[in-house]
Specification:
mainly alpha; 14 helices; flat; two-stranded antiparallel sheet
Amino acid sequence: MPSLTGETARLTKGWSLSRQYSALGMLLILPTLLTFLLVIVYPLVYAVYLSFFSIYTPTLQGEWVGLENYRRMLSSSEFWTSLRTTIVWTVSTLTLQVVVGILMALLLNLKFHFQSLARSLVLFPYFVSTVVAVLIWRWMFNDVYGILNRALLASGLSDMPLDWIGSMPNAMISVVLVGTWKYFPFVVIAVLARLQTIPSELYEAARIDGANAWSRFWDITLPQLWDVLVVIILLRTIWDFKEFDLIYLLTGGGPVTSTQTLPLLVYKQAFGMNAMGQASTYAIGILVVLLIFMVLYLYRTQGRGGQDA
């Protein structure tokens, strides 16, 4: 019986060297290609397929309705309200993440004792499980024994406890604050890494010319950070827009539907209303919005890669 090596050698005997390298390359990327098709392409195509049906979730049985689900989505006030809530949440938390992240990175870039310890501690929220983070903040927001209400009462800033997550606009403010606390360390990591590569000669020349701290930040630091900030904003926009677990665990979309974002609406339609087809339609709507940011991100990163090359 011929060995496997001998059989392979016989089959490739008439191939040129470049053709053998091409076959080896295809063989090596085949597992990645199959994984991509199974994990990304198949669920995406199946979601598009489901969006043309009226499907009962427990049985996954239904009938073809064509574009009816899309017509309902575009004429649904709940969809547009959830889209507006998603935009408010994304813009608010992203703005605070970038501002707090830049300020914290500037502080951590200074020379002081226990600098390494401070840099480690500031990353703590990013590594904490979302479930644990939400439990901690729900305890702090509690209107009976929460530390925030006790601090407000003790300082005299309020005469009575605030309902942090049970009324508007407190609920949205609370969600934005928790989201900022959870994800601003990502901005710190990226900005701090870029700060350490800015040549110190630029600041020395600015000091000689009499530039104050604000002028050095505005004319040197911020332009040097711009490329990193654009990538951070695009990535965080994509991630915040599709955020589900933090908002669902903290408010469940309430009070009523005041903090219900599009991902929560998809979950509600799929498992609360048992309308898998309509939920798939909303999910496709989210995908279309995210594709815009993904194209911008790819354009930005590939354009930057071309300039670097």
